[in-house]
Amino acid sequence: MRHADTLADRHVLVVGADDPSLCQLPALSLALQGDDASVPGVAATLLPTLPAPCDLVVVILPKSREQLAFWLAAVRGQLQTTTEVWLVGAANGGVRGGVSTLETLADEPASQFDSARHCKLFSSSLSPASFMLSDHEQRWALDGLSIVSYPGVFSHGRLDAGSALLLDTLPADGFSGAVLDVGCGAGVISATLAKRGARATAVDVSAAAVAATRQTLQRNGLEGMVLLSDLYAAVDGSFDVIVTNPPFHDGTRRTTDITRRLIAEAPARLRAHGELWLVANQGLPYGDWLRDAFARVEVAAENRHFRVWRAWR
Ligand SMILES: C[S@@+](CC[C@H](N)C(=O)[O-])C[C@H]1O[C@@H](n2cnc3c(N)ncnc32)[C@H](O)[C@@H]1O
Known about the structure:
alpha/beta, seven-stranded mixed sheet, 8 helices, binds S-adenosylmethionine
């Protein structure tokens, strides 16, 4: 907003726009791409799509430099001509590192042209270059499955220790019914349960996670429905089992609010005698919330760091 005058006569794409207030930027034309489907007014997609015309790409510094490189490479892959790019981020959020990443792909050193509200704004330019999605994906093996993940997806390229305990604890002969994996990430839980015989539905609010889970299921020849959804918002019907390694972040902010909502709304999504399986760090207050929402609650497994909860409707 401090550069409203410059934006006013530019066709702007904002990449990483996980903030609804960005809709107010006063550009000549404005396209907003983000990862989080719960942000109103923003297209949540794995890759930014360059609108036509576009003469300025503004990138909001993401959590990881790998994701920044991924987005910049995807933008370059769509450019027809050299185009100005701005990078904005919090001074204590790694924006200097982000500038180094930008400079590895940009035509010229980035120049800082604003600093305010603990944030810095840099400018450079990008030229057209080829882009291959497969160059940015991570593939890793898990019990005979090939897991696919993209930058920005939770536990990118490796199995999370909490998810490992959950998968070890779930019945080895699987569930025969309808299973909902809430917060599916790269699809490790959905793929494992689909392989064990479940009819899996997977949801995630992150476009990158949804793309990764679809790829994971497809690469392993597994069936499953994968939905971009804020918890149950896009989900129809009811399930025999809900399985989750629930989120503990909203963007970069740590929060238990999403999991509180996930637990409170779970019984309404379960059939009679349906079950919720949930893994979480030790010390989180989920036991109380589970006992408030469910008829019966047990600790199915635990170690020093994690606890697997099993709750019956
Ligand atoms: C701890 S990770 C677990 C990922 C995956 N199930 C695994 O085991 O590796 C939690 C996931 O929840 C997703 N998430 C965060 N907020 C969400 C929401 N409101 N609705 C659905 N998914 C959400 C995150 O994008 C992330 O992929």
